[in-house]
Amino acid sequence: MNTPVLTAHALTKRYGTHPALTEATLDIPAGRIVGLVGPNGAGKSTLLALAAGLIRPTSGHIEVLGRKPAADAEQLARVGFVAQDTPVYAGLSVADHLKLGEHLNPTWDKQFAADRIKQIGLDPAKQAGRLSGGQRAQLALTIAAAKRPELLIFDEPVAALDPLARRAFLQNLMEFVAEIDVSVILSSHLISDVERVCDHLIILAESRVQVAGEIDDLTAGHYRLVAPRGTLTDLPDGVDLIAADHTDRQTTLIVHNTNPTPLAISGAEPIGLEDMVLTYLHRAEGTTAPTLEETRA
């Protein structure tokens, strides 16, 4: 059985009195491309920094690939991390970056890095500061992947890229996953990008995990129910109410069916990924939990 790529229990990070991440519990299987979504300030960068070993938790527990993050040089070599804005050294050439990567990483694949730089058309002599945003992202991706890690972590890698550069980056990412057999955790504001490349999802909002799981299972288990007001007075066991909207005539519910069988309620319709994500984000912003009480005549 493969070791989970990340496990966390009651993982919490606070800065003074400010909660950056609160009581996060996760179990992410190996071999997944994980989409981490949520608004600014939700805790995405904090979770990724904890996974990379850049910061330590205030409380709780986290393991990456079965060990404490950044426990030693061997563990560091197993994880590739690309921070926001895909940072590179502006004064160094592309070739200098590859030499530095080779010097710092014991598992560095020199031929892989050289082949990728040639494939994407980067001039080895060109300074990184003179590259376009898309080219810098590709350079950072190449450096991270040439470590031959077991896990690649990306913190908003395509946020500043134009649509063509973003598509090229994601295409290369999928090629890397197939070529080097690596797990990926990718934070993004763009649900369309998550839907395109990811098979596992974590939704963060207000410093808390709202829901996590396989994307196909999550979308198959979330439904919209529409009925005359006052007729939806209760829900079956194993069906959680996520959101409720009421008019004088009609009630609309978003529910999560945690049962192994499809929801057997007349008029129930599955919702798409974007609607599901937005529902959880809106719920996290609310001051009160949704209730069925309002639907009763």
UniProtKB/TrEMBL annotation:
Keywords: ATP-binding, Nucleotide-binding, Transport. Pfam families: ABC_tran. CDD domains: ABC_DR_subfamily_A. The keyword Nucleotide-binding applies. SUPFAM superfamilies: P-loop containing nucleoside triphosphate hydrolases (SSF52540). InterPro entries: AAA+_ATPase, ABC_transporter-like_ATP-bd, ABC_Transporter_VariousFunc, P-loop_NTPase. This is ABC transporter ATP-binding protein. It comes from Glycomyces buryatensis.
